Amino acid sequence: MRALIIDDERLARLELRRLLAQHPEVQIVGEAANVDEALLAIAEHQPELIFLDIQMPGGSGFDLLAMLDHAPAVIFTTAFDTYAMRAFEVSALDYLLKPVEPQRLAHALHKHQQQHQQQHQHQRHAGAAPDKPQAFDGKVFIKDGERCWFVSMDQIVLFESEGNYTRVYFEQHRPVLLRSLNALEEKLNPEHFLRASRRQIVNLRFLAGIGPGPAGGMILTLKDDLKVSMSRRRAALFKQINRL
Amino acid sequence: VSQLAGMMRLRLQGSQVDTVRLADELAAVAVYLAMEKLRFEERLNLSLDIAPGLDDVAVPPMALQTLVENAVKYGVELSAGVCRIRIAAQRHDCQVLVSVANEGRLNEASASTRLGLHNTSKRLALLFGPQSTCSLAESNGWVTASIVLPQGQP
């Protein structure tokens, strides 16, 4: 497993390296001391897992994640208990309190490996091409004001354009992602996501019903009774592709 | 660990008294900064400018420590590069001015409650009267916390 250590304190990185020596399955491919270095290191090494300090000068670990199109698996490291707890109201995330205890590290790594294996099995069952697993299984980190979420793309029901940003709908949440709908569309797997209109992309996994719409278009009904209308042109294309 | 033990011992002794000698307070601060230096390494750059003859000036225990901790927390911790900290003490006529400065900016929007600064002001006023103050100011990329200690007759 290729891992990257991101922490502004050299001694903290050294300590984590020392602890990870007990886990030969973890290969440390690099280190970074701030957000800028981390962006470069992630692009260069494509780690599967990052150990990420939350509080860093010049930008937090959350800021870093919000800049990534596809976030690798993350184990947060923080000196402040309440900080991590408060920021994450939704996803149960792994975080290690500094100083890191060896047992807690082992537990977090074990949990991560189980999730990793499950994802692989899921992909095999789904028959996904192995060269583009990210398109469906990737997670995206969303920071909207003070709140943060770590959500799998496949959990997002609907993407809706709001100017240069995109509102995403999942569970009961509606945060705004700092990317345009067009930029997102390029990253999404077209087998699972459908551009229903100029303003919307729907996740076909949550499609509950299809009905006729005005002017020869269609109305897609999604989970939680979200309704999206498709133009006649897009509806025709959709029918053609799916041989409806 | 022995540094930490030494610092705790000094502080526990200090908690029994109203004031300590400036020299003792500075010694305790030096131990604290040595530990932060282990953590921040070259990012923490300390300089001292203590005028001679001030060793016996009375200060509230932990007063200087509070200001130095702030300089580390809001200066060094938030700085990706080198951050200088300057501790100075001078006598001006009938008062002694002790200051702790760090490179950086005052952040009005920070989560700070200013409690440490507020408490330090109150302790100074209770011990030495209203002439004794504690203030914070920013200029030219430095944030400086200053304590004024009236001395009666020099």
Describe the structure.
The complex is a heterodimer of chains A (244) and B (154). By secondary structure, chain A is of the alpha/beta class. Chain A is 34% helix and 29% strand. Chain B is of the alpha+beta class. Helix content of chain B is 39%, strand content 30%. Chain B contains 4 helices and 7 strands, in the order αβαββαββαββ. Chain B has helices at residues 2-14, 22-40, 63-76, 115-128, and strands spanning 20-21, 44-50, 58-59, 83-92, 95-103, 133-139, 142-150. A 5-stranded mixed β-sheet of chain B has the order 2-4-5-7-6. The longest helix of chain B has 19 residues, at 22-40. The model of chain B has no long low-confidence stretch (mean pLDDT 89). Classes of the chains: A alpha/beta (244), B alpha+beta (154). At the A-B interface, loops of A face helix 2 of B.
Task: Please write out the topology.
The complex is a heterodimer of chains A (244) and B (154).
Chain A: E1 2-6, H1 10-20, E2 27-32, H2 35-45, E3 49-53, H3 61-66, E4 73-78, H4 81-87, E5 95-97, H5 102-126, H6 134-137, E6 139-144, E7 147-152, E8 158-162, E9 165-169, E10 176-177, H7 181-187, E11 193-195, E12 200-203, E13 207-212, E14 218-222, E15 227-230, H8 232-242
Parallel strand pairs in A: 1-2, 1-3, 3-4, 4-5
Antiparallel strand pairs in A: 6-7, 8-9, 8-12, 9-10, 11-12, 13-14, 14-15
Chain B: H1 2-14, E1 20-21, H2 22-40, E2 44-50, E3 58-59, H3 63-76, E4 83-92, E5 95-103, H4 115-128, E6 133-139, E7 142-150
Helix pairs in contact in B: 1-2, 2-3
